[in-house]
Amino acid sequence: KNPQGAPDPKLAIKVQKVGVVGAGLMASQFALLFLRRLQVPVVITDVSQERVDKGLAYCRAELDKLVEKGRLSVDDRNRYSANLSGTLDMNDFADCDWVIEAVFEELKVKHDVFTRVEAVVRPDAILATNTSSLSVDEIGKVLKHPERLVGFHFFNPVAVMPLLEVVKAAKSNDVSVATAMRVANDLKKTAVITSDSTGFVVNRLLGYLLGEAMKAVDEGIPFEEVADAIAPLGLPMNPFDLLELVGLQVGAHVLDSMYGFAPERFYKTDSLHQLAKLGRIRTKDSKGNKTGYDPEAIKIVSGRTRT
Ligand code: 3HC
């Protein structure tokens, strides 16, 4: 079903090759999904060969795991693997008709990426950003053709979460949005079209939940108590596990953006930045099972702003 506000699906272009800028956790996860669901060549790039190799290795290891689980044939694994390539040369993106980035959440970095991408791709290529809280129109300011840029916001873990936010910025045209909806559909995701407002829809809501959880620990309530209190709501994860899942630095950026957008409505938490530097909230055993909360993390938050 075409959601309300979606342009005519016939306007969508058929994507024949995908370019992914960034080979981090999020980008590698969706590169894998493009390989499996769109079944087209996917090329990934990043700032160093080491990062590119790490992204490629992640995709190949996940394909191997699917074969081991009996969910993918060896032939399909080999086909998808052959469709995957990594490069440091942006010219390898020249024949991509869908290029999506998931690089560091800083406007300057995104501007640099899209300037370099637009210099090589065809005039009809569609560009997408997986930004979680920057303005898509702001990101598109450096483009000669900002009408071909849309937001395409995945959720972690990409393979499992059904939702995708397709962000229709003020300048996005119908061809770009229709193509994004078609890609979302081919990925078997449920897409909603959102406007280009800070945090779109999901991170506005999550911003409250995560912000309030951080506020509670900043006020001296122990991590366990906050986690236990929220458990009866039946959320699949407590806020601290969710912060670790999305990445503490990403979480801190989202909360900063929401606070910048509406300081009277969102909570700014310096301690989350410190937790991001520490790199963890939870302690884990040798098998990776969560065992408790890290003593250093407890020190960072304890009683910061007790009222
Ligand atoms: N990659 C691939 N598959 C994964 C995965 C991962 N990282 N994590 C879990 N899965 C798969 C498992 O393989 C399993 O698949 P199967 O049933 O086919 O075997 C399935 O997911 C369920 O996994 P588990 O049984 O291990 O664990 P749970 O039932 O506890 O589910 C979870 C794990 C899906 C992560 C669940 O806890 C969950 O939904 N958590 C909330 C996640 C969430 O809210 N994400 C949104 C974050 S916001 C965001 O990303 C936006 C950004 O801008 C901040």
Automatic annotation (TrEMBL):
Coiled coil: none
Domain of life per record: Bacteria
Residues of the 3-hydroxyacyl-CoA dehydrogenase C-terminal domain: 199-288
Domain 3-hydroxyacyl-CoA dehydrogenase NAD binding per the UniProt entry, residue ranges: 17-196
Family to which the UniProt record says this protein belongs: In the central section; belongs to the 3-hydroxyacyl-CoA dehydrogenase family. Belongs to the 3-hydroxyacyl-CoA dehydrogenase family.
Protein name: 3-hydroxyacyl-CoA dehydrogenase
Source organism (scientific name): Rhodoluna lacicola
Taxonomic classification: Bacteria, Bacillati, Actinomycetota, Actinomycetes, Micrococcales
First and last residues shown, out of full length: 323 to 629 of 705
